[in-house]
Design goal:
Blueprint (H helix, E strand, L loop, with lengths): L5 E3 L2 E4 L3 H10 L4 E6 L8 E4 L20 E6 L2 H12 L4 E2 L8 H7 L7 H20 L7 H8 L3 H13 L3 E3 L15 E3 L1 H4 L3 H4 L3 H18 L1
Parallel strand pairs: 4-6
Antiparallel strand pairs: 1-2, 2-5, 3-4, 3-5, 7-8
């Protein structure tokens, strides 16, 4: 019996889905992977970066990444993965010593290069600038896909591919839950991530934790608006 992958919020769990798993790694190199066994054992889950060679390259012909006894839980949010494994397995994950997923300095030094298209850069510049203005002025944040489309003189549909890529690359977050295969409503708001803000000199020297605190402030201002 072949089981497909399934989603838990921003997490994806792969069971008997080698091709889908390797595709996820290719498109989410900034994400994280929990390497686990299906049945509980004394061996704890191991947390890796998605770019780690230990969970993407096999010396043998058959990798068994998600087959046999193996399961992979993948996601973009480190805290979410750790909380999930604690709840579901009652075990704390250990960290891979090769890719050091909990070390921000290692991440900055070894982060895969993300090349932006011109449209991607224009989108990112607009969203980041709008967020910084709101943070500086302690104003409510309400930048939507419709606002972005008007500014760039394009339709929301023309922005869909670039928005999807920026979201997958960890630069943007789109408000609310999204339905696979369905167009994103133009009224949905766009939020920058810590990676997006750290493209600016003023934020580049900040720790990821500090930048996320700034983003939380932005979210709080947005909640006050609503």
């Amino acid at each position: 019996m072949v089981l497909t992958f399934f989603r838990l919020w921003r997490m994806v769990i792969f069971i008997h889905e080698e091709r889908a798993y390797l595709s996820w790694l290719a498109h989410h190199r900034h994400g994280f992977v929990l390497d686990m066994l299906r049945k509980p054992t004394r061996k704890p889950p191991v947390l890796h970066r998605a770019s780690c060679q230990g969970i993407r390259v096999s010396p043998g012909r058959q990798s068994h990444w998600t087959t046999g006894r193996h399961v992979k839980a993948c996601g973009l949010d480190l805290a979410e993965l750790l909380a999930w494994t604690q709840t579901e397995t009652d075990r704390e994950a250990v960290y891979c010593q090769e890719c050091q997923p909990a070390d921000p300095a290692f991440a900055a030094e070894h982060a895969p290069e993300k090349r932006l298209t011109k449209l991607g850069k224009d989108i990112l510049d607009y969203v980041v600038e709008a967020a910084v203005v709101c943070l500086d002025q302690h104003a409510a944040y309400d930048t939507s896909i419709a606002d972005l489309a008007t500014y760039l003189d394009k339709t929301p549909a023309q922005l869909a591919t670039a928005l999807s890529r920026l979201t997958e690359d960890g630069y943007l977050r789109i408000e609310g839950s999204l339905q696979p295969g369905q167009p994103v409503p133009a009224t949905r708001r766009l939020f920058p991530t810590a990676d997006a803000l750290r493209t600016l000199p003023a934020f580049h020297q900040m720790s990821v934790r500090k930048v996320n605190e700034e983003l939380q402030q932005l979210n709080n201002q947005d909640e006050e608006l609503t």
